[in-house]
Amino acid sequence: MLLSEYHILLKESVKGITLINPEGSPYHALGTEILEMVFSYLQDSDFFLKNGDIVNHYASLGYAHGWLIAGSYLGLYKKPVPAIVFSDVTFPDQYNQEHLLEKTRRYHMMLTNAIQSVSPFPGTGSPLALAAAKSLHEVHDSFSRAEKLIKDNQFIPALGYLCYGYGWLDTVVRAGLIQVHANFNLFTTEF
Fold first, then answer.
1. In angstroms, what CA-CA distances link 145 with 36, 80, 85, 130?
2. Most buried of 39, 84, 85, 93 (most Cβ within 10 A)?
3. What is the value of pTM for the model shown?
4. Taking Cα atoms as reference points, which of 167, 141, 147, 168 lies closest to residue 59?
């Protein structure tokens, strides 16, 4: 899949998306915030693309996708959201390879520290404890895939998985399913 096709796929995925929880409810407010983040990252991706920054364009798409999938999993909106295999994404011929390498290494370190800074928040008897566990599994799975790809010098898909996993993590922190103990600056939620 070309990077441009991935961009179109995500833009199409958010068209007509509506929140399913009643206005005024906490989950409606949460859904609103999550969709604002999705649209914000998609706008960032457009900005970077216009300025020829393919690496940040791609990273923004990965973040948006993580937020979008996590919000769908939490039941905040009903809309099929496509899964992605980042190993299938191909970049255009011209991009800054040094920037890709630097950003992938930096985000690997950031997500490493972010994962080490959190724990599930809901009590084990709560149905939300299962959601927290599933969400952390998604984050760890994306991180593990990225690490394997980094070892194989496959930095394009590695960065995709890092950003996608980070998007999931930020979403469930915002949702109150995950508690942050340290490195608060690594998350988009205000503490």
1. 28, 24, 10, 22
2. 84
3. 0.95
4. 167
